[in-house]
């Protein structure tokens, strides 16, 4: 993805049950010749939570894609909420870190398309088969915006919480050194077992033991 500009549009205090963060809002404006993704956005948004002093060394970073069903409604079809809470636990336990929360619902296809994919999954497709049947790629996410934000924040080296090798590659391709990958693996549920198997077996996510 190419942006003509990436700008911070807001910054405020955010008290949470994990502690007090700074919350920053960023907008990435697509370049005139850039092709919008499946959701048709010409302006992409991301929220950044900063905890403690991240100016020295390689801060712990989580790049998390929005998941309304998991993050808000506590769905057990996926591991998104558990990974989000794991990241916040890890950051605050360490005393500092950054969480970048991207508006890329349903691996970038949008909420309504994601729910249509759920219907197909209920009929027996896996997550990739459902997306492809609807005319999408397995994963439409792009990690340019979080990398650009980290560059704006002066962060050049990170310890990245992820199981996804594509996130590591995306950060490094934009000049962000991944000094360490920290596992984002969480305990599987019976309802998320197949979802996690597909991430491991078809998408190359670094997941160890499942149920």
Automatic annotation (TrEMBL):
Necessary cofactors: Zn(2+)
CDD domains reported for this sequence: GTP_cyclohydro2
Enzyme class at the top of the EC tree: hydrolase
Record text on cofactor binding: Binds 1 zinc ion per subunit.
A UniProt-annotated Pfam family: GTP_cyclohydro2
Swiss-Prot/TrEMBL GO biological process terms: riboflavin biosynthetic process
Encoding gene (name): ribA
Residues bound to Zn(2+): 67, 78, 80
Pathway field: Cofactor biosynthesis; riboflavin biosynthesis; 5-amino-6-(D-ribitylamino)uracil from GTP: step 1/4
Chemical reaction(s) catalysed: GTP + 4 H2O = 2,5-diamino-6-hydroxy-4-(5-phosphoribosylamino)-pyrimidine + formate + 2 phosphate + 3 H(+)
Keyword tags: GTP-binding, Hydrolase, Metal-binding, Nucleotide-binding, Riboflavin biosynthesis, Zinc
Record family assignment: Belongs to the GTP cyclohydrolase II family.
Catalytic-site annotation from UniProt: 139 (proton acceptor), 141 (nucleophile)
Name of the protein in question: GTP cyclohydrolase-2
Function noted in UniProt: Catalyzes the conversion of GTP to 2,5-diamino-6-ribosylamino-4(3H)-pyrimidinone 5'-phosphate (DARP), formate and pyrophosphate.
Enzyme Commission identifier(s): 3.5.4.25
């Amino acid at each position: 993805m190419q942006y003509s500009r990436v700008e911070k549009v807001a910054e405020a205090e955010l008290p949470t049950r994990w502690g007090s963060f700074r919350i920053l809002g960023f907008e990435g404006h697509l370049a005139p010749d850039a092709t919008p993704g499946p959701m048709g956005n010409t302006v992409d948004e991301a929220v950044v939570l900063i905890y403690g002093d991240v100016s020295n060394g390689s801060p712990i970073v989580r790049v998390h894609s929005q998941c309304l069903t998991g993050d808000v409604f506590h769905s057990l079809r996926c591991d998104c909420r558990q990974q989000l809470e794991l990241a916040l636990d890890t950051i605050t336990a360490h005393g500092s870190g950054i969480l970048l929360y991207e508006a890329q619902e349903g691996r970038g296809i949008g909420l309504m398309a994601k729910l249509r994919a759920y219907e197909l999954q209920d009929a027996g497709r896996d997550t990739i088969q459902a997306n492809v049947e609807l005319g999408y790629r397995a994963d439409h996410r792009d990690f340019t915006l979080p990398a650009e934000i980290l560059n704006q924040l002066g962060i050049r080296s990170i310890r990245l919480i992820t199981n996804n090798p594509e996130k590591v590659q995306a950060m490094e391709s934009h000049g962000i050194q991944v000094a360490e990958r920290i596992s984002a693996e969480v305990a599987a549920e019976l309802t998320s077992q197949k979802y996690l198997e597909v991430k491991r077996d078809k998408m190359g996510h670094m997941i160890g033991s499942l149920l």
